[in-house]
UniProtKB/TrEMBL annotation:
May play a role in the negative regulation of cell cycle progression. Residues 174-269 form the Fibronectin type-III domain. The lineage of its organism: Eukaryota, Metazoa, Chordata, Craniata, Vertebrata. GO terms for cellular component: cytoplasm. Keywords: Coiled coil, Cytoplasm. Gene3D superfamilies: Immunoglobulins (2.60.40.10). Belongs to the cytokine receptor-like factor 3 family. Its main location: cytoplasm. InterPro entries: FN3_dom (IPR003961), FN3_sf (IPR036116), Ig-like_fold (IPR013783). It comes from Callorhinchus milii. The keyword Transit peptide does not apply. Residues 10-84 form a coiled coil. The gene is crlf3. This is Cytokine receptor-like factor 3.
Length: 437
């Protein structure tokens, strides 16, 4: 009995030690989290100070230059007005000075003639004739002071107060960016990014999403627009990517600060069309199929059954050709050659005119016809698996097909369990271009 008690005490002691170690590990993780939080606050504060100092230094230099340029422009206007206004006065002064000189000469000549008296009658006659020719009663006009410019500077005394108000309200410091990324979900060859506005006072006009590989600091725009989610495609599997978002306020030109960058990766293989299908040309990543002018060999299928339950499969129509009732876009359990459409058994699809087919039979419900820019989505989830995953009894998939602003929902009864589906398309006429993701 004593041995048993000792054994139990020993076991309790070991469990307490394990619990203490786990507790210590958890506390150390929380310390690490606190250190990362402290680091984020300190580093963002340093960065914000640098941004503010740089901005206001540049602003000060720009304002000083603008004021100096404006002063120089106004002084040039003063110089121009002064020069243009003085020139007529200078011309008038020259004319008057010439008249004064002429009059002085005439006075001197007249005084000489008078001194000579009647003895020099000829001189008196010549002087009189010369005086008449000069027109001593004709005087040049001199403009009055009200007729000539009187320069002045017209300055708006309220300018400084208005500038002061703008300066006092210029810039702001926020403890958090107005937008944060809230969800990153892996998709085949892509990441679904969702973000949200965390500042209720920030009136958003549009959002901007960027991404880059974790090994690079070169962010690229992925989306600009009003939506709060976007699927970033062409993401290499098993590689970490950074994502960040920001917003532009209503009536503003500048973007808000970036959200805190988040990392994500996808482990899901990208959806690809199979190569070598006559009648279709593929893009380099094999996610875009173009119906060319060659005779079609039937349905273009996916390379592998990469579409699984719980995912959303999207087809985006990037170009259209002539429509035909045999056109089809959809999913299937297997690849079957010899068919010119997915309107067959073991497949569900939508035609270009919006008709929905299940196992080759047309449903009464119909979706809008597809056109350029249309997106057709398939959402599939398991309804039940019978008694086991290999039990084919009543194996059903709940299928939701959406096109435009409408959707159809139905249960697809299968003859055997199916873990993954192929996708495919068929078009009778050339010109159709389809992106899958």
């Amino acid at each position: 009995m004593e041995v048993q008690v000792q054994s139990e005490l020993l076991q309790e002691a070991k469990e307490s030690i394990d619990a203490a170690n786990n507790y210590k590990d958890e506390l150390q993780q929380r310390l690490l989290g606190l250190n990362q939080a402290r680091k984020q606050i300190n580093e963002s504060a340093i960065q914000t100070r640098d941004v503010l100092k740089r901005h206001f230094t540049e602003l000060k230099g720009s304002l000083t230059k603008l004021l100096a340029d404006r002063l120089a422009s106004l002084l040039q206007q003063v110089d121009k007005i002064e020069q243009e206004s003085i020139k007529p006065l200078d011309d008038c002064q020259k004319l008057i000075e010439h008249g004064v000189n002429t009059a002085e000469e005439l006075v001197q000549e007249g005084e000489v003639a008078v001194l000579c008296g009647t003895a020099e009658e000829e001189k008196l006659g010549n002087f009189t004739k010369k005086a008449l020719q000069i027109q001593l009663d004709s005087l040049p006009e001199v403009p009055s002071l009200v007729e000539v410019p009187c320069l002045s500077a017209q300055l708006d005394e309220s300018f400084l107060s208005s500038v002061r108000e703008r300066i006092f309200s210029h810039g702001a410091v926020a403890s958090q960016p107005p937008v944060q990324i809230e969800e990153l979900t892996e998709r085949p060859g892509g990441i679904l990014v969702r973000w949200c506005k965390v500042d209720d006072d920030f009136a958003t006009q549009e959002y901007r999403l960027q991404h880059c590989k974790s090994s690079s600091n070169h962010f690229e725009d992925a989306y600009i627009g009003p939506e709060t989610e976007f699927i970033v495609l062409h993401i290499d599997p098993h590689i970490e990517y950074w994502f960040r978002a920001c917003a532009r306020g209503e009536g503003r030109r500048e973007w808000s600060p970036w959200s805190i960058p988040q990392t994500a990766h996808t482990t899901l293989t990208p959806h690809e069309w199979i190569t070598g299908c006559e009648g279709f040309s593929l893009s380099s990543r094999r996610d875009i199929a173009l119906r060319n002018d060659s005779p079609s060999s039937g349905v273009l299928y996916s390379k592998e059954p990469t579409y699984t339950s719980g995912q959303t499969l999207t087809f985006k129509v990037e170009a259209v050709g002539l429509a035909d009732k045999r056109d089809s876009i959809g999913v299937c359990m297997d690849r079957q050659n010899g068919h010119d459409s997915l309107q067959r058994d073991r497949a569900v699809c939508i035609s270009s005119n919006g008709a929905v087919f299940v196992n080759g039979k047309e449903m009464t419900n119909q979706l809008p016809g597809v056109s350029i820019g249309s997106s057709v989505t398939f959402d599939v989830e398991v309804v039940n698996l019978g008694s086991s995953i290999t039990d084919s009894t009543n194996f059903k998939l709940r299928v939701i097909i959406s096109s435009g602003n409408r959707e159809v929902v139905f249960d697809w009864v299968l003859d055997q369990p199916c873990e993954a589906l192929y996708f495919g398309c068929s078009f009778t006429y050339a010109g159709w271009k389809l992106l899958v993701f």
